[in-house]
Amino acid sequence: MNNRPFLALFALLLLTSSAPAQGKIPPDRDGLLAGEGMGLASVAEKNGFPGPKHVLDLVVELKLTSIQSEAARKLMENVGVSAKALGSEIVRKEEELNALFKSDSLSPQSLESKLREIGKLRADLRGIHLQAHLRMKWVLRPEQTELYSKLRGYEIKH
Fold first, then answer.
1. Residue 106: is it exposed, middle or buried by C-beta count within 10 angstroms (0-12/13-18/19+)?
2. Are 62 and 141 a contacting pair, CB within 8 Å?
């Protein structure tokens, strides 16, 4: 039996799976396309504003009602849809910026314009995640929010 095709495929898989993320444009591409939080709402999280994804991870510990669970699920779904769409747009704009650098066709003004465009999109993305944390706090009772913070390792000072 000839193992050459199998070995070649195995070698190719090893090479591609260990390829560094640093070659990606932008470096946070995977998280952007997946709609992940990537720490964008950590300021809310650390100040007593729970995130819907982590609330759902703690559904038993927080003793969520069915209404609270459903609200958290809907918030998480809405964030996911919006964040993926915006993340996709950010990736597209970052790729455009990369192409402009490759083609050596940037001026200081066009660079600034492109950066402002990307910055606005990234601010909007952060806003989506922060709004979800703000809304999630309205769904929980104060004692649930306090327990959430303890379970997540945050000590909230009032």
1. middle
2. no
Calculate the alpha carbon distances from 86 to 2, 32, 36, 92, 146 in Å.
48, 8, 11, 10, 32
C-alpha 52/C-alpha 40 separation (Å) is 14
Burial of 29 (0-12, 13-18, 19+ CB in 10 A): middle
Say if residues 55 and 74 touch (Cβ distance below 8 Å).
no
Which pLDDT score is estimated for 1?
54
Per domain, the residue ranges of the chain are 21-151
Q: How many CA atoms lie within 13 A of 33 on its CB side?
A: 11
| Per-residue tokens: 67 | 């209404």
Q: What is the pLDDT of residues 77-132, one digit of tens each?
A: 999 999 999 999 999 999 999 999 999 989 999 999 999 999 999 999 999 999 99
